[in-house]
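Chain A, query sequence.
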Amino acid sequence: MENDQNQGLIREVFYTEEFFIFYKELNVKVQTKIDYVITLIKDIQLIHTGFVKKLVDTELYEMRVSISSNEYRTILFAVDHKNIIEATKVVILNGFLKKSTKDYLEQINKAKKILNELE
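Chain A, predicted structure.
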């Protein structure tokens, strides 16, 4: 896991190898929008739910990026607080192209496995 060493930001964002693999496979337009949302997570205390939303019945969050009719989701974990708004450290665990609601359960389970391996 690598770390952005930007000082003075609200949140530090850490990335897993699983996320990097997902990210590298995306086209530049999608990467640019994901980079923009990550910048919001780092820089803004109150993140709009259009960009980051809590996943029901989990300790995880999803980062939301829409390009045309494609919905990209990335699973996040707030390291040092139960609420991402209060967190100063966030880990981006994994990402996926949302095709159906079935994708969520599989990706949440994958994110939990990644998180367990990090602990």
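DSSP finds three helices and six strands in the chain. The chain has one domain: 2-118.
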